[in-house]
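Is zinc ion placement plausible here? Inputs below.
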Amino acid sequence: MLRIHNSLAREKQAFTPIEPGKVRMYVCGLTVYDYFHIGNARTLTVFDMVYRWLRAAGYDVKYVRNITDVDDKIIERANRNGETIETLTTRMIDAMHEDCDRLLMLRPSAEPRATQHIDDMLGLIGDLEKNGRAYPAANGDVYYAVREFPGYGKLSGKSIDDLRAGERVAVDGHKRDPLDFVLWKAAKPHEPHWCSCYGEGRPGWHIECSAMSRAELGDTLDIHGGGWDLQFPHHENEIAQSEGASGKPFVNYWMHAAFLNMDNEKMSKSLGNVFTTREVLNKLDAVQGGEAVRFFLLRGHYRSEINYTWDLLQEARGALVSLYTALRDVPPAVSAADYRIDWADPHARRFHDAMSDDFNTAMAFAVLFDLRGEIHRHRSPAHAALLRALGGTLGFLQADPAAFVQGAAQASEAAEIEALIAARVQAKKARDFAEADRIRDEIKARGVILEDGAGGTTWRKA
Ligand SMILES: [Zn+2]
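Reply from A.M.:
I modeled the complex. Tokens:
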């Protein structure tokens, strides 16, 4: 039985989907004005892991992750770059897919874009207005009236008055209450806008998720995920919008991924410690990098903060290489395509129990390292097959083990050494022994030992 920590209930609860065997999952995606940073990578990877595990556990999952392709940051960046909003967002969506692919994420079932759902957003705002929860203001904006929604504050666990005291909310003469938030913004010059019964304008950010989740998944979702920082106000506002319109519960299980810190400090532009995922990936070995970062991001439990340092990342890479080394040394008994996990096996059972306990990847990874120990002790191809398959449920250990262990840097070095060996053979054939010796010395200087045998020359690192 799968148990999930529900942020709304503040406890782990047994997971019961709305429809048996099916899961409707929505995750707040990216605003595509720049490459995504390594903190975003954690949230995206966590929910990819959740998606993969739900599938491995036998659920038919519809996973929706939105793309915010119109907002202030996008407009500002496109203007600064001297390009259209569409050129910028198309480029950034392509880059997002590239980076997600490098981190071995599966594509969501749907990636709706805000600009393609304007009518759905206006429909939802219309429903809210009918229910007395939205009001047009004199300046052309449309606001949500938080005082008209009795459940406002239930996710953050605070009353409206607590929230008003705790948050620095800008006083705005057009709002009835400072916590009221914008659903529709009146058009400003030189900004993209759409026609509506409220006049020309564009949607507020919060309404996107309520409208797109309703369009893709219906009024009630099984799981809604996002970063920890989105709980207030974004998710609180999503609840107010969706439940305020439909009168039905919006989300049965709210999941939030904790922060990634940089060298024990919160990531922030002012500290200059914000790294894009591609910067990090480009510094790593091309063969090992993506899976190593994925491993690093998932080795802690998703509700625990994790600390990013270069050394910790390298350590994670080394740990992953050690699992691949076991698979290289003792190849699995059966091909991956023909192998089925026997969940009654004690190791598989422990892995399953860990993942069923609120996706405890830290415990599940420990099982992978126990299996590595078994493989070394007993040289057991059966354990190797299980290791590869359990890793595979979370998107790991599917590459060719020998190539992965060698890595890209070593692969290019290997090509150079092979070329030198071939040149030495040629020199010997031409009876140019001085040249052959010179090449042998050059190879030796690279810390490589040549072994001339009956089948030719092989080499190994000294
Ligand atoms: Zn959202």
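Short version: Residues 15-257 form a domain with the Rossmann fold fold (CATH 3.40.50.620).
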